[in-house]
Amino acid sequence: MFEWTYVVPVVTALLGLFLGHLLSKRREDEKRKRELRVEYLVEAYRKLERASQPTSGAYRSEDVESAVADIQLFGDKGQVKLAHDFCEAASCGDGSLLQDLLEDLRKELRKELNLDRIGLPPVRPFRISANKQIQATRKPRA
């Protein structure tokens, strides 16, 4: 005669293993997506920051185009809107919205990387010239 008393615990254990595997896979997938998103947004931030104060040879339009494309792909709704607004303004020769985009990216990346929330001043890149002099960029907007 068939013993049902052994079937229920075995089926329950198998269902538990299956559900645990599904949940674990989902967590891993979400973690991979998050890591990929952060990686691309950090690179976009670096490219835009580098372009925000062009010096001899530092500015490359391909970097800006690539950064904007990455933000449009991996950014949240607000970042995509800021990237779009920056593109519209830049096409008219006004790059002033780049600062807003950089600040939003910095804020989001600090949050994603679980870094402390601090009252950060506006992004203010600096460059070291060929003769080793540090050049601070424009003062932050009021």
What is the alpha-carbon Rg in Å? 24 Å
Strand content: under 5%
Strand count, sense and barrel status of the largest sheet are: 2 strands, antiparallel
Shape: elongated
Helix content: 55-70%
Query: In sequence order, what are the helices and strands, one letter per element?
Result: HHHHEE
Number of helices, counting only DSSP H or I runs of 4 residues or more: 4
Biggest sheet: strand arrangement: 1-2
Strand tally = 2
Average of per-residue pLDDT values: 82
Poorly predicted ranges: none
Structure notes:
The protein is mostly helical and 142 residues long. It has one domain. The chain is 65% helix and 4% strand. The protein has a two-stranded antiparallel ribbon. A hairpin with a 5-residue loop joins strand 1 and strand 2. The radius of gyration is 24 Å and the shape is elongated. The chain starts with a helix and ends in a 6-residue tail after the last strand. The model has no long low-confidence stretch (mean pLDDT 82).
